[in-house]
Amino acid sequence: MNAIHPVQGRRRTIPPGFIEVLRERLGDRVVTSPAACEHHGRDESPYPTTPPDVVVYALNTEEVAWVAAHCNTHRVPLIPYGAGSSLEGHLLAVQGGVSLDLSRMDQIVAVHPEDFTVTVQAGVTRKQLNDSIRDTGLFFPIDPGADASLGGMAATRASGTNAVRYGTMRENVVSLKVVTADGRVIDTASRARKSSAGYDLTRVFVGSEGTLGIITEVTVRLYPQPEAISAAICNFPELSSAVQSVIEIIQMGVPVARVEFMDTAAVRATNAYSKLELKESPLLLFEFHGSPAGVREQAEVVQEIARANGGEDFAWAERPEDRSRLWTARHNAYFAGLQLRPGCRASTTDVCVPISRLAECVTETAADMDQASFPYTIVGHVGDGNFHVLMLLDPDDPRQFEESEVLNRRLVERAIRMDGTCTGEHGVGLHKMAFMELEHGRDALDLMAALKHAFDPHDILNPGKIIPLAPGVELAA
Amino acid sequence: MNAIHPVQGRRRTIPPGFIEVLRERLGDRVVTSPAACEHHGRDESPYPTTPPDVVVYALNTEEVAWVAAHCNTHRVPLIPYGAGSSLEGHLLAVQGGVSLDLSRMDQIVAVHPEDFTVTVQAGVTRKQLNDSIRDTGLFFPIDPGADASLGGMAATRASGTNAVRYGTMRENVVSLKVVTADGRVIDTASRARKSSAGYDLTRVFVGSEGTLGIITEVTVRLYPQPEAISAAICNFPELSSAVQSVIEIIQMGVPVARVEFMDTAAVRATNAYSKLELKESPLLLFEFHGSPAGVREQAEVVQEIARANGGEDFAWAERPEDRSRLWTARHNAYFAGLQLRPGCRASTTDVCVPISRLAECVTETAADMDQASFPYTIVGHVGDGNFHVLMLLDPDDPRQFEESEVLNRRLVERAIRMDGTCTGEHGVGLHKMAFMELEHGRDALDLMAALKHAFDPHDILNPGKIIPLAPGVELAA
């Protein structure tokens, strides 16, 4: 592999007339301008722009199916594009081809409040979804920082701050409408809450990052808006006591809705960016959902456990506007971090370990990162054992990127050694491919490759992603 | 198809010397006696015994891998066998071959209380698991009526009465150790609570009923034993008011741990079998888990909603022995039902629909069943929209079996028409295969078949199950 992309196949040649056929049916929704192609050839990863040959804007499932069949016939790569907020190079067109922009597929298809489900087109974003269902008394909890599309969230098995209570996309996708590589349309499941009727096609596609099929509709679970919510912040003398508190809180069965960790650098960045005056030491940020009495009870138990572990300055945010300010600040931790070094090139990574190993993993990581020649922050969804390292690199110094990759490798190896995973929620994209064999072993990767080949025999769907090639194997062009 | 089995391939011939090679390595754990073969050729389904050619008792993953490789080389069917408690013909040796009995693989491999996980060999049963971890303060909630093995529960995507609160095996399996068709051993995931690192192999194998690989170890999530538990019974004038109460309870966000429905016949059977004096009308059986105050609060909300819907005689079971008697009675509803017609042949079926359609589905089903020439009961995990019909047939009257199949077909078609599934928790086995195309459509079934072929190219793993053959296709012998 080279320092920019792992080697994932050559750019393929677009056959003559291929784009004209697209234009005949889709008109000016077929765009080849450099601006559009470049925009669709980058995400929030540190990789350089890798544009597709053409961008197609689809309006419905039928169009997606038609485009897929056309690409399959001509062996042209097809890469679904949602909000462009992926972090690991998922949507870069490493073999060229078509970027299929689904952002105009933004319709709410069906709301079933009595069943706690909603069906949306893949381009609907999570904020749009919550705005549209607000008056049902229900909400959709999953919140990766970005205002990602539901299709993209399903495709990367996204989660975020609420996962400790509500689970990830893995648990919350009820059913998907999917276009296969050869342009057929399937529904992966009924709307029943549970089923034992055959293979779990829903979970096959959740997390498949556009490599097995193109998600065009998503049905997800909704939850009652909690009657009462409260949030609190607690500072700790050190990271390990914060993590120990979280373990004990979960062990007590407290159904905490959110529990987030920020290291001192992240707190400092957030204070500067969001005009807050948080005490600059490791802290936990809590949110509790339930009945008024239930929330009070949860908060009391948590406060007691935090104090016993050296937590101090337990501060409450009871008013909605204060809570909102706090969580906006947390969600902006990424952008706040960037401001620690204006103009920097950011590389962000995430791992997840069993919670019993979390303190050890974060402590070792912080010690390792302290040797770096650039600043960094650590934030984490600690209830899940998941944390992120944001590395702020000098864009004009390629050695810093190489250094960050070495640190990233050590971080991932550490997490896997502790029975964890190379990515808790970002997905594999390009950036984590090199670790797939270390995490899963060659035999499990071979099964993944067999699944990929069974579903996409001509390797047109987001080719060159997720599964690293076995040594010596060359991708078909 | 005939009235006994759908046509799922001919019995295959065991090559000469095949069993001798098994004996050489495994000695007297290779059994060909008619008694052992017959025992391993039946489950709790209404189908006649269909024995394998040989039964092999494995003690560890290495032996399973060796047996799989041997079967794969010689194209001999291999059917994993756990507790034998499946209900739909899952383990019948329709093509003959090896029944691989995993019940002696009954070791607890690793308990990680601080991570809320336990790893067990596939033959460990759910009661054995809970007994072995009792002193950790944690428990494993999933409870199909039978004392099933964890491997079997994972393979059928089992659930039970607690699923409304704790989810099914889909949500609670963290990782699996699996032997592939060609005898390789893989781990499907790390012990991290969440991961976005590639395809979800865990969920590929959960619910695959032994057709994609053989599960030899299961890592599952555990939960804190609730500080307080209470149970209650409430009678309703009719089914629909009971179901309406459940919808409102869930809409209010009450985290009810269990909510079970029994029809009048099921209550009558349970009274007779379990020496209870429940009022013989439709009833709901609740259980609440939480802190003492939380449980009290949940109970108050539920009582209020039930009353507003015509519920009466709300009766509490606060003492552990009363609760235990009640839930034992519920778990024995199947056996109680059988006693409504001693010596009968039972056919039990389950469907699951979105909860908004549940009242309609159960009401129509009861009206349809009332025309039957045999008795029946209906019980359900109503919080999930899942219910069971137990049909009590005269074993000497084949017309009753045919009649039950017609009623079953109408039930399944009704559920699918209401955007539900042909099985909520029993699995497909043989009995639901005929409905797979109706539920999923041919294109989705083709994907399942492609997955099966990719993972088991010689079709040795529990062949003739789950996926009906496309018209005109003959299974390879």
Could you please describe the fold and organization of this structure?
The structure is a homodimer of 477-residue chains. Chain A has 477 residues and is an alpha+beta fold. Among the domains of chain A are: 108-224, Uridine Diphospho-n-acetylenolpyruvylglucosamine Reductase, domain 3; 228-334, Alpha-Beta Plaits (2-Layer Sandwich); 341-426, Alpha-Beta Plaits, CATH 3.30.70. Chain A contains 17 helices and 18 strands. Chain A has helices at residues 18-26, 34-39, 61-74, 126-133, 150-156, 163-166, 169-172, 201-205, 239-251, 264-274, 292-308, 320-331, 333-339, 358-369, 398-417, 436-440, 442-455; strands at residues 30-31, 54-57, 78-81, 98-101, 108-112, 117-121, 138-139, 173-179, 185-187, 214-221, 223-224, 228-235, 258-262, 283-290, 312-317, 345-352, 376-381, 386-393. Chain A has a seven-stranded antiparallel beta sheet, with helices on both faces. A five-stranded antiparallel beta sheet of chain A has the order 5-6-10-8-9. In chain A, strands 1-2-4-3 form a four-stranded mixed beta sheet. In chain A, helix 9 (239-251) crosses helix 11 and helix 14 (358-369) packs antiparallel against helix 15. At the A-B interface, strand 9, helix 8, strand 11, helix 9 and helix 11 of A face strand 9, helix 8, strand 11, helix 9 and helix 11 of B.
Oligomer: homodimer
Class of the domain at 108-224 in chain A, according to the CATH hierarchy?
A: Alpha Beta
Number of extended strands of chain A: 18
What gyration radius of chain A follows from the Cα positions, in whole Å? 22 Å
Reported by name, the CATH topology of the domain at 108-224 in chain A is Uridine Diphospho-n-acetylenolpyruvylglucosamine Reductase, domain 3
Helix content of chain A: 25-40%
Query: Which term fits the overall shape of chain A?
Result: globular
| The CATH architecture of the domain at 108-224 in chain A | 2-Layer Sandwich
Mean pLDDT of chain A: 93
- Record the strand order, biggest sheet of chain A: 15-12-14-13-17-18-16
Q: Distance between the terminal alpha carbons of chain A, to the nearest Å?
A: 18 Å
Question: Major sheet of chain A, described briefly?
Answer: 7 strands, antiparallel
Number of helices of chain A: 17
